[in-house]
Design a protein that fits this description.
The chain is an alpha/beta fold. The chain is built from 9 helices and 6 strands; from the N terminus they run αβαβαβαβαβαβααα. The radius of gyration is 18 Å and the shape is globular. It starts with a helix and ends in a 5-residue tail after the last helix.
Length: 223
């Protein structure tokens, strides 16, 4: 939907940057490359990125921002779709992108900001201190998203409440970043599109393949 509205229906040569490769966030790299984009997904946990590579959702892993940007630039120059999982923290990486003037074409986030500490507090730290640091980090993360938005990134929230938490932490204009549901999902509903997923209660992967084939048969002109 973002590609259709802002880039003529194609993200070829465009850089998409996001955070969070676990859970639902793990679908992001494949969503980007299916639309022709080059994707950098940032996650603090390398195992989440490795899992996405093992399952075919992500192409490469990087432990260094310069390395990730090099791979991304080479893919953009070739006009090839590529997804890169970068091991790092959004609150470190995004401010560095803004400092360097590296402006993604699309910027979003799907870190688990809705659950600030996954219900688990690091040892050696009081709960209130850990919670305060989590909120402070989200504020840094959000300010960097706002900085990149001002520099020209198409920026939106992915429904993980990072805007709400960042505002609590003092980022008064956190909601200058729009939410993806009113921006991109609601218009699809207005077109009568949906549901967006289906399941095979049989547990048989062949049944999913059959529904994929049927979708291709029924909607042959919808890329």
């Amino acid at each position: 939907a973002a590609a259709d509205r802002h880039f003529g229906g194609d993200l070829t040569g465009k850089l998409v940057v996001s955070g969070g490769m676990g859970g639902m966030g793990g679908a992001q790299p494949l969503a980007a490359t299916m639309n022709g984009a080059v994707f950098i997904g940032i996650d603090v946990d390398a195992s989440r990125i490795e899992k996405r590579i093992e399952t075919g959702y992500c192409d490469r892993i990087s432990f260094d921002l310069d390395d990730a940007l090099r791979m991304a630039k080479e893919a953009q120059d070739r006009g090839e779709a590529l997804s890169i999982g970068l091991v790092g923290n959004c609150a470190d990486v995004l401010p560095e992108l803004a400092r360097r003037g590296v402006v993604p074409d699309v910027l979003t986030d799907q870190t688990s900001a809705h659950d600030t500490l996954y219900g688990y507090v690091p040892n050696g730290m009081e709960f209130t201190d850990a919670l305060r640091l989590a909120f402070e980090t989200m504020a840094v993360h959000m300010r960097a998203m706002l900085d990149l938005q001002k520099l020209g990134s198409l920026t939106f929230d992915y429904g993980n409440n990072i805007r709400g938490h960042a505002k609590k932490a003092g980022v008064e204009n956190a909601f200058d970043v729009p939410g993806f549901v009113p921006e991109y999902i609601r218009p699809l509903f207005c077109e009568g599109r949906g549901p967006f997923r289906w399941a095979a209660l049989s547990g048989n992967a062949a049944d999913i393949a059959a529904t994929d084939d049927l979708a291709l048969e029924l909607f042959p002109h919808d890329h």
